[in-house]
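Record type: monomer structure entry
Structure origin: computed from sequence
Chain ID: A
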Amino acid sequence: MARQVLSVDDPTFRATPAQQMLASCSGAVLTSLTMTPLDVVKIRLQAQQRALTAQRCFLYCNGLMDHLCLCLNGQGGPPAAASSCAGAPAARCPAVETSWYRRPAPPAFTGTLDAAVKIARADGVASLWSGLSPTLVSAIPSTVVYFATYDQTRLLLRDRWGTPAVPQPAWVPMVAGAAARVWSSTLVAPLELVRTRMQATRMRYTEVGAAVRQLLREQGPRGLWKGLTPTLIRDVPFSALYWGSYESLKLAFNQQTPSPLFSFVAGSSAGTLAAVLTLPFDVVKTHWQIEFGERVLGGEPTRADTGVAVALRDIYRRAGVRGLFAGLVPRVVKVAPACAIMITSYEGGKAFFLRRNERLACEAERR
């Protein structure tokens, strides 16, 4: 008789919080390793077309994080705190002192694959992963907290509100996803602010305490969460829509322990839907980030962000509906595979620990 496949939510053998963290950590690393070269190639292609040379600021996202790059006369400017495509706050433009995005190109790139080959030959294979280190340092803690919080919250609500007929109400993953994003972003924001200041002023670790005390004196405890709003306005709705869609697909196709192929397709589909529906919020966040960067370069005092509704109305007045959905294709092209890789790794990790926990329990019982 065929062995019954356990659900990853099985209360006896399901992954513990620590095991969920390990599974999400491996997913974050794999997503970064996979997506960073694609974005480095994209930025170099844009630079070849002189799309960047006329700008003082530009954004790029390597699957887990947004990076706000401030550039003046071809040199790197100070970094700006911003927010991420997967929850972790943004880092400074990686390796900006070497102007990796403006390096003289070999013979003109003719396409993505051609650019990747020529960049690797001219600058070394490692150059395809420019900016990976700051991504891993900043994004992994946020990703670990986010996924573990999501699953623990979802299971708590599922066990409390589920019934034999409907084990998991449709609203449960949406609430859990929104709550996990709020918690992970809020928890990591002070750490990211300190890290960003260290990068901006070449601060030594021994000076971090003094910098935090000065910030608290000047702005109070709320100063530690400066810049959190741009993160939340996009990522909380995205998280709710993503998890609601993904869990609905699992239920519709009866995937209690989803296969890698199903996780990849469902994660990509859910990510695409969430990316499209939350794109206006992403446009607002991008406008705020770019404006912040331009003010930093100009030496102007930063100001509080306008309200989300006001920003949406202004964009609509200037550019209409197309303005609210600007950059749809690039966002989907980046978000869909990143979500697919991340959820496939995470579900695979949970399935591994489920089988491991079951095996250990059986061995203990035989003794």
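Annotation 1: Confidence is low (pLDDT under 50) at residues 50-54, 72-98.
Annotation 2: The two ends are 25 Å apart (CA to CA).
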